[in-house]
Known about the structure:
Helix content is 5%, strand content 33%. By secondary structure, it is mainly beta. The strands form four sheets. The chain has a five-stranded mixed β-sheet, with no helix packed on it. A three-stranded parallel β-sheet has the order 1-6-9, with no helix packed on it. A three-stranded parallel β-sheet has the order 3-8-11, with no helix packed on it. Belongs to the transferase hexapeptide repeat family.
Amino acid sequence: xxxxxxxxxxxxxxxxxxxxxxxxxxxxxxxxxxxxxxxxxxxxxxxxxxxxxxxxxxxxxxxxxxxxxxxxxxxxxxxxxxxxxxxxxxxxxxxxxxxxx
Length: 101
């Protein structure tokens, strides 16, 4: 329904869902079948864990890590590790350090 941009050197694990289609929240508008799209942008060097869900309109910053099963409803900053439902920042990655594990 709408564009999905995926940067260079990204890893998407099995079962990742990226959605761009959405609909109005009010019942009378939903019943009419109205639907629209919001693009998703994934920056360079992003790692998205298995069964993560990326919702319409989300922008994921460079070098971000999305935990397995995360439900991403808002933009993710550069160098952030996010997880949970809804996904929240767990930590910031220090690019001067090697990634653990």
